[in-house]
Design brief:
Number of helices of chain A: 13
Order of helices and strands of chain A: HHEHHHHHEEHEHEEHEHEEHEH
Distance between the termini of chain A: 56 Å
Shape of chain A: elongated
Oligomer: homodimer
């Protein structure tokens, strides 16, 4: 039989074919396809490799694999205003209809006026009054139903999309990648725990018991027919911002996370707490530096800060000093939204 | 060939063999071997069948399968005193050594006297002082290490066994059975959340994040080297008893349980809340009516009640009225402890 190839050529072809095969498999199984190759993507992949490779010095037993994520500005768009604040402002007319005595009282009067600039200027304590009035005083089921109805209709002015469509595709891939590697993924948000729970399962695949947020108390009461139910009370149990994040993590999880993602000073203590644990720990901060595709704000940018937390220059310095990874939305993300 | 059996005999033999095989398989796969056949065992098996059979009107999607369990007196022995109270009393000498000013102050003075009868007579507010002094004022890690050390040595006076060996074998089987059917099992205890978390994973297979208990606050602080840590504060965040149980369930899980197990008035609201949900719900109360193998107390018994909650006659009546299942330790449990 005539030889079609020399042994050498055959070997070379085999090597080429193998390389092509490996590249093909890699392309198929890239767990983070919306991420550009770069230090951020490499940090995530390396962290997963080290903590899940048995025998590796950084190996973490599966029950201890906890990853925590801030929500607003880390998992979805937080500009021009937190979605929950928009929800609460939208609820004011209904609340005033039930309690007409609020109609001429501030800050409700300003909200009812519809004057966007005046509303944007409301101080934080007025916003808290609006949050308390619209997030309490009903049963847990009533609140869930109202929030769900709103979320199915309200749209972001810039994209004309439902707010729930504005989740970041690269972060959804991180969720899946971590879960495929036995990580339990938690949201740890300054936002209202009950509000985020309404959509977290559908949007992020995160069940209610893995949503930690700013939480008000509930009260167990009986209806006149003897049936018990829970009402939402205007009583703050957990302010899940800043130091409240590690405190909330201890309260609700009882383990220190191995990975934490944030985007502002509100997440600083969560990242510090994560980083203070032994072994490999992933600490990541998302930098909004993409005015074209999303927004640019933070250290090098110019958007006005009207929010609880922001990515300050001091936080940027701390990240650099402690070896946290800064994700550049502009450079690290190939695609931002699933609908793109 | 000579026929050894008539067709009729062969058929009869086949039926017998099949029955023997089915019985064998059933015996092998009985998920609750420490339970006697009876209404309690049947209620559990039927609940699991109904809620996990696709197409059944009572079917519950796996993410919603939540089961909650009281701990003291439901999962392990609570007499003559809650294990945690014994722990706190044992810790008093160490606390006084660090704060000598407590030495001559009540209730510490009485505890240090070693007078068991006087200690047993301490009123509830004195017990709270002891709990606060021994469960706070240290880092989370220090507390865990102390509690772990104690649990590895302290023994129950009656059985001379570690407290952690006094978990009820039938309940461990319920845990496994429910988990095998995609139920997420939670402890919802009036005991200290951090204390129970120290051993719940090893004893019950329940991770820290699935232990809800009476919880004090923590505080995020920095050591002089800049490393952050959490200290346990003498501030009550959640009193996880009575109405605090459903309120704690909402705070920490955010879903209504489909199954709940308790043994006292402290569990009443949790069972009522569970029962108020739609569909099949399992509500079970353990009655301690076995003085020979464990203890007898509650509706028909005589042990003095020095506890937070007890199985009162009124609770027994409510259970009967609402169709809750009462588990008789004496009649429903074939075996109580794994070491028997």
């Amino acid at each position: 039989m005539k030889r079609l190839l020399s042994a050498q050529s055959a070997r070379a072809l085999l090597v080429l074919a193998s390389l092509a095969f490996v590249a093909h498999v890699f392309a198929q199984t890239d767990p983070l396809p919306s991420w550009n190759d770069g230090s951020a993507k490499r940090a995530i992949v390396e962290f997963v490799r080290v903590t899940t490779t048995e025998g590796s010095p950084g190996f973490v037993p599966p029950p201890e694999r906890i990853a925590t994520f801030d929500q607003d500005g880390t998992l979805w768009v937080e500009h021009p205003m937190y979605t929950q604040v928009i929800y609460c402002l939208d609820r004011v007319p209904d609340v005033v209809a039930k309690k007409p005595e609020l109609k001429n009282r501030e800050p409700f009067k300003t909200v009812l006026s519809g004057n966007r600039e005046a509303i944007a200027r409301l101080p934080m304590q007025d916003l808290y009054k609006i949050l308390a009035a619209t997030m309490s005083g009903m049963t847990v089921e009533e609140f869930n139903a109202e929030a769900r109805k709103w979320l199915e209709a309200a749209r972001h002015p810039r994209w004309n999309r439902l707010y729930t469509e504005l989740a970041y595709q690269p972060m959804l891939e991180v969720f899946r990648y971590l879960r495929d590697n036995a990580y339990k993924t938690y949201i740890v948000t300054g936002g209202g725990q009950d509000f985020v729970r309404v959509y977290a399962e559908k949007v992020y695949g995160i069940p209610p018991e893995q949503v930690i947020g700013t939480a008000g108390g509930t009260k167990f009461v009986y209806a006149s027919n003897g049936k018990p139910y829970l009402t939402k009370e205007p009583k703050l149990l957990l302010n899940d911002n800043n130091a409240g994040k590690p405190e909330g993590i201890h309260l609700m999880i009882g383990r220190r996370p191995y990975a934490a993602f944030g985007n502002s000073t509100g997440d600083r203590q969560m990242l510090e707490y994560t980083g203070a644990g032994a072994g490999a720990r992933l600490k990541m901060l998302l930098l909004h530096d993409d005015a074209a595709r999303e927004y640019a704000y933070g250290p090098a940018q110019g958007l006005p800060d009207t929010k609880v937390g922001t990515f300050t220059p001091a936080l940027y310095d701390e990240a650099k000093k402690n070896g946290w990874t800064v994700i550049s939305m502009k450079n690290d993300w190939k695609r931002i939204f699933a609908f793109e």
